[in-house]
Amino acid sequence: MYKSIGNPVRPLRLFIGGVHGKECRTTKLLLERLVKTGRPMNGSAIVIPCLYMGKYVTTLSLNYLNTKACKRLVKIVEAFKPDMYVEVHCYKPSSYNSLISPSRIKVKGVPPLVELEGGVLVGSISPLLKAKLNLNLPVLIETPCGKRENFKTALRILYVFLMANSTTEALETLGFKHRLKDA
């Protein structure tokens, strides 16, 4: 875990990587690079590059709520009460189409992710986790697993969240202004 405490301490940004399966192989490298990019100008950041490495259980399943990973996550969120929450995942290239599919809402019960560029996707976290963690506007960033050529794009996006004073500000900087007003 990395902490960067600014003055004032708020807003507090929490970046969590590797919430299931073998994602840590990608998220750890990516989030360690984020830490090296600098500190937020206002507030502070906590970066956890690898929450848990073990059996893959989708965060869209009720079963996830009973995993060690979820229990760790709940303790972390309750302890720090972040103002901004960014969950970093990686996906297999074969999952790309299902992640961005407009039918994802019917098939999985969650809206499709949006590609910002270079295969890096953005969306909201699992509704189950959002409710369990009691988070306001939590963000999910997905990058292709093991594809270091996508790191530059993913890192640029994560840096926007690191420097922003709110999730809304970060999303607007990334071009989601019109979508936020419709939400």
Question: Can you walk through the features of this model?
Answer:
Helix content is 38%, strand content 20%. Mean pLDDT is 91; it is low at 178-183. It has helices at residues 24-37, 68-80, 96-100, 104-107, 127-133, 151-163, 167-173, 177-182, and strands at 2-4, 12-17, 44-48, 84-91, 114-117, 120-124, 139-144. It has a seven-stranded mixed beta sheet with strand order 1-3-2-4-7-6-5. The chain is globular and about 45 Å long. It is of the alpha/beta class and 183 residues long. It has one domain. α1 (24-37) crosses α6. 33% of the residues are buried. It contains eight helices and seven strands.
Short description:
By secondary structure, this protein is of the alpha/beta class. The chain is 38% helix and 20% strand.
Q: Estimate the helix proportion, in percent.
A: 25-40%
Number of domains: 1
Strand proportion: 15-25%
Low-pLDDT runs: 178-183
The major sheet is characterized as: 7 strands, mixed
Distance between the termini: 33 Å
* General shape: globular
Q: Based on DSSP secondary structure assignment, what is the total number of beta strands?
A: 7
Q: Please tally the helical runs, counting DSSP H or I stretches of 4 or more residues.
A: 8
Mean pLDDT: 91
Tell me the structural class: alpha/beta
Instruction: Calculate Rg over CA atoms.
Output: 15 Å
Question: Order of helices and strands, N to C?
Answer: EEHEHEHHEEHEHHH
